Amino acid sequence: MMNRMPTDHAQANAIFVAHGLTKIYRMGEVEVHALRGIDLTLYRGELVVLLGPSGSGKSTLLNILGGLDAPTGGEVRYLDHILTGASEADLTRFRREHVGFVFQFYNLIPSLTARENVAAVTEISTSPMRPEDALALVGLGNRLDHFPAQLSGGEQQRVAIARAVAKNPAVLLCDEPTGALDSATGVVVLEVLEKINRELGTLTVLITHNAGIADMADRVIRLSDGQIAEIHANAVKKRASELSW
Amino acid sequence: MKSLDRKLFRHLWHLRGQVLAIAAVIMGGVATMVMSLSTYDSLVTTRDRFYGEYRFAEVFASLKRAPEPVAERLAAIPGVERLETRVKAGVKLEVEGFSDPITGQLLSLPDVGEAQLNRLHLKRGRTVQPWSTDEVVLSDTFADAHGFQPGDHLAAIINGKRKQLTVVGVAVSPEYVYQIAPGAMFPDFKRYGVLWMGRSALAAAYDMDGAFNHVSLTLARDAREQDVIDRVDAVLATYGGTGAYGRPDQFSNRFLSEELKQLQTMATVFPAIFLGVAAFLLNVVLSRLIALQREQIAILKAFGYSYAAIGAHYVKLVLLMTVLGVVAGVALGTWFGQGLSHVYTETTFRFPYLDYQLRPGVALIAFVVSAIAAVSGTLLSVVRAVRLPPAEGMRQEMPAVYRVTLFERIGLQRWFAAPTRMILRHIERRPLKSLLTVLGIACACGLMMVGNYQKGAIDFMVDVQFRQASREDLSLAFIEPTSSRALHELAALPGVDYVEGFRNVPAILRFGQYHHRGAIFGIQPEGQLHRSLDSSLQPVGVPPGGVVLTDHLATEILHVKPGDLLTVEVLEGSRPVRQVPVLGITKQYLGVSAYMQQDSLNALMREGGTVSGAYLAVQPGKETELYARLHERPRVLGLVANKAAIQSFYATIGEFILFYNLVATVLAGAIGFGVVYNSARISLSERGRELASLRVLGFTRGEIAYILLGELALLTLAAIPVGFVVGVGLVGILVVAFQSELYRLPLILTPQNYAMGASVVIVSALLSGLLLWHRLGRLDLVAVLKTRE
Fold this sequence. Notes:
heterodimer; A: 245 residues; alpha/beta; 6-stranded mixed sheet; globular; disordered N terminus; B: 789 residues; alpha+beta; 6-stranded mixed barrel; elongated
């Protein structure tokens, strides 16, 4: 299938544009081709699911988009900035100002309360929302002063999402956000992501190997062996609450 | 090799930074121990061998004069094995180009053949030829201080007559391993020398033809020393004997024993402290290091490895680190030990050779102590990890439990941004761990203070001794007690500002089972030059009718208190025995003394106004001229110039101080760095994921470094005042342990000591911080997205 642009998105709304991305890891004497020429454009406000088995290159792609890793070849542009070849300090600033990350294992700071975990990020941002508002957005307005150890896994992940969106990022990158959660809790987390995508219009990229989740996406990008195997736009998006696996 | 063992070496390599830091801590403790014990053993072995090979006598006696046939009566005393008579003369020496007063001790050698006892070890040249009239052998300290070689000349004033002497040899003697002029506080190799000369030549110059004034002897195997001493005293009573004495009272040997006793204290106290601290740190560091292995331990258990196998694995790991530290410590300690022994034999003790000894037992003890500390710390953590079911160990660890800190609860939280709160909560969450880290760092600070403490203490001692108590520029001794009219003649000499006479009576002081062989000084009650000091170091007058003792003599040697009656056995003249009340105790850091008013002492001796010598205040610039005038006076024998004495003292101890400073800096530095770096590295391991997450979220390297290093800085700063307390405590232990007849160290710490202690900690922290900064640059940001540990 060809790389088809959804009709309601103009080229001007492109946030990420990637051309010919390759990534080769050298593990001793073995070369691992993690990405083998990816061309991809991601647009403002869409919810994209990156689907693929382990080793398909989806995490590598996410890391390059998030400024955590540099491609071996090709180019990535974020708005009018070229990320490829940027300095460590520039990439740090990029992450700080524009990217929200959500990790599989939440990665909350155990010594900070929910509110403070969010505040840690808003303190270094230029135009953040109030931490309380961010937590209210994920439905944790009543758990502000709880430490991570006092929260369930799903709650911790919602705090992580609040932390990611509190800085009003242009893009939210989520790497297996439900991977460590049971299905019911996972759905709650996905509902939060869906809500944020809808209400804030944040480009949301969600990695999963769980095909069931793909139904909630605007577009599903299927990776296989370091290449894009398929890009599929859902004609009808399912609500996160309708998902199950 | 089994795969678990391969893991061991990989692991060691992986942890190499921490392994080295831990080994450095062990090395510090072990090196101190090896240095001290091996130096002590070496000096004792060397002394015993020297005494044996060169036939150091066991009983000595001085007398006024006895005809040679008396020697046969002495030799016939049961229990005497070998006996030798000698002529011994106190002399003044003249060395060309050196105008300061020099005193000397001239001893006779047999005219033919080798001495029976107290033999010389010739370092250069030869011994005197039979019947030679002007040949002398010099003690090597004196020869080296002036650069004398065989063939050189010097002159001696013997019995008021000037005699030209030719140097033929340079030697050391078991009788003079420690050379110090009678009445001096410390050795001065330039201004005091021992010389040996043919018997007939010396006897002729000293009016001792066919006679002797000194005897030494060795004892038969089953002889009782006191019996022999009593019989010798009985024989010599009519010849002006001043009382025979054994080795414990022999001057050189007594000082040597005191120094060795101190060294032995140092060899036990210092390493105990050092090794104790090292062991403690090792325990702390390893228990945290192993705690990080929780997941690996769970995996090994899941594979079916037994508890014992897993325990053995980690024990092997730490034992390898320990071995590394012990081997390095033994090597460094041996090197330090050889250095220290060398400094001792260069500056303090003169031996013909040095048997450097490192008993294998010393290295073994070092290893066992270190290993116990290491293994116990390790096993504690391993047992804790092993107790967890494997599944739980591998499961994601629940977020650590934190709470709001005390600071924030009292309303200070708005002052702290999230990173600062992280620091405070992390510290408060595990107060014990934080406390141990603080204590460890504090120990390094304290050890540094101990190592650098002597300089300030010695300055203080010298100041008290020479600017408060003995303020004379010059003290001189007459050949024999003299009428106090002689003081007027001294006062009239050009350059003399002020004269204060003193009476000095050699005596044995006895109280119960305790005794001290020394002298009683009769001084002026309102003396300007020579004064006693009370416990607050203020001058205090000596009351009439009794004796005032310095603190160490009263409490540690004689065990008397004011009001007790002391038995004084005078070793001069008719050798009266008197009961004298103790009237007070005074403070003195250097040496020990007993003081009376001069009048009281004269009364005790049933004599008129008699003096043994005088303290002089000399006009600046007139010293040389005055020395020359005093040198000409036949009745003036010994001269001790305080300024020169202080200078020579500093020259002697300078090397020691330098050496100890070097050792302390190396060891405290090793320990300081070992603790700080390990704490920081473990912190990084514990929090690496957290910090990397923050990096992913857009924190800069500087911002996460603040969180990690801020904690380190806070703990380091907290450790400095604690370190000062530890330092004062350790110095206090040292002061108590180092009390001896030679000196008592004052508990004085200078601002410089504190600064040195703090700086070793700060430098260690900065260095660790730098290394960590480097590591923070290499955090794996990608890994934290995927992994949970």
